[in-house]
Amino acid sequence: MIATLYDDRQCALGEGPLWHPDRRQFFWFDILSNRLLSRDGDRPRHWQFAENVSAAGWIDHDHLLIASETQLFRFNLETGISQTLCPLEADMPHTRSNDGRADPSGGFWIGTMGKSAEPQAGAIYRYFKGELHLLFPDITIPNSICFAPDGRRAYFADSIRGQIMTQDLDAGGWPENAPRVFADLRAEGLTPDGSVTAVDGTLWNAQWGAGRVAAYDPDGTFLRAVAIPGKHSSCPAFGGPDLRTLFCTTAQQGISAATLAAHPENGMTFAADLDVTGWPEPQVIL
Prior knowledge:
It is built from one helix and 24 strands. The protein is mainly beta. It has one domain (4-273): 6 Propeller (Neuraminidase), CATH 2.120.10. A hairpin with a 3-residue loop joins strand 19 (203-208) and strand 20 (212-216).
């Protein structure tokens, strides 16, 4: 299966796709251009920020929690008004936020990384009911943050390691026991980027440089892949009226000007209709 074009705006680093279940609207980010993008029917929309923005969770109909390079903030989609919720490595100008997603307990997991992918410069945190907690330090490129539908497993990756990890969670959504390898992609030379899960527990992982989103069953066995026209497939999300549309962002980062001229689809956003169903993104509880 090959995904088709959803939006032709080219992103330097498309990331953080989110289907807002209350608004029934799709959002995504261009991290390096400091933009949040969306579509209102056939009308493209975007919001511009003063610094890198990368991921979001939904708070209510009009508000998103957005992660930027220095903070987590509440953003009103109708008025454009922002309210800081907490600093995020605000004293570390060499880092920014990257992959993030709300968990089924109402928390929000967010990864940080060095702006030049400095080794072990980042971390993964959980924001829960007004407080930010460090979960995993010494991360280089945090990605693949997603959760099993029952809320008892989390997934994440440090992309440079070539492995997707799984982490047991307690009833409150906190890690218990040590993380373990869910899928080891090193033998295939694949780089795990963003991931999302379906209601059947399968995990769908965008693989940077491979132009695809690969599906794995709950024990980590490869099932199939959806081809993405952009080489750097970066992050998937389920959405659409029946949650059977798989959206995927892509990026231009690291692709030569000559290649971009010949293949302008790099950096665009794509979608594929599948025979599996996603589940609604959890609401962030402030």
